[in-house]
């Protein structure tokens, strides 16, 4: 296929092909076509590419070339390129940053206002559930009809009107004004979510 003379020079007709391409088309398709007609040289290799089968690579479908070949011009394998090392124990992430505490244990230390903030700002979230459970543990109850949290005033004992109704002084949490309001209220047990 190669049309070179014994002394390594090219025939005159091949030299003229490259010379015939005008300078404006040298880097276009005409220039590429003239390179392809030339014999294998450095310019052709860079323009067209390398034949990987001639480099001794396993090109079967199961072969993973990327894991073993770092570069076609490098004499080492990819495994030799990446050094083997281990990090010292004193700089590992687990030793620098303490593990976060579980949310359900940390939430016990929050104030009521913080729990209300979590309840109202995290709808349909696990945090809302945790806040709700802690508020119930602190004797707060959610009133379904008026949709506010309330608790009994610890200074005044409520009066039982019927088996499921009582009247007394209750503390309500108003989410609109973000304050606790103390007032007398008739409570139906069926309206309170325990």
TrEMBL record:
Record-given protein name: NOT2/NOT3/NOT5 C-terminal domain-containing protein
Gene Ontology terms: biological process: nuclear-transcribed mRNA poly(A) tail shortening; regulation of DNA-templated transcription
GO cellular component assignments: CCR4-NOT core complex
Ranges for domain NOT2/NOT3/NOT5 C-terminal: 67-191
InterPro entries: CCR4-NOT_su2/3/5_C_sf, Not2/3/5, NOT2/3/5_C
Keywords attached to this entry: Transcription, Transcription regulation
Entry's family note: Belongs to the CNOT2/3/5 family.
């Amino acid at each position: 296929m190669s049309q070179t003379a014994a002394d390594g020079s090219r025939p005159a007709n091949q030299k003229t092909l490259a010379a015939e391409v005008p300078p404006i088309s040298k880097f276009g398709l005409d220039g590429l076509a003239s390179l392809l007609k030339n014999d294998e040289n450095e310019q052709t290799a860079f323009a067209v590419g390398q034949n990987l089968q001639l480099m001794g690579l396993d090109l079967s479908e199961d072969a993973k070339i990327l894991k073993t070949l770092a570069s076609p011009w490098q004499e080492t394998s990819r495994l030799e390129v990446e050094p083997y090392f281990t990090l010292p124990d004193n700089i590992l992430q687990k030793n620098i940053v303490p593990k976060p505490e579980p949310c359900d244990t940390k939430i016990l230390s929050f104030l009521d206002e913080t729990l209300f903030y979590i309840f109202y700002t995290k709808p349909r979230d696990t945090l809302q559930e945790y806040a709700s459970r802690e508020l119930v543990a602190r004797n707060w109850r959610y009133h379904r009809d008026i949709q506010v949290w309330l608790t009994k005033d610890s200074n005044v004992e409520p009066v039982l009107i019927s088996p499921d109704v009582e009247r007394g002084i209750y503390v309500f949490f108003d989410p609109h004004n973000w304050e606790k309001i103390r007032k007398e209220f008739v409570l139906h047990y069926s309206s309170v979510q325990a």
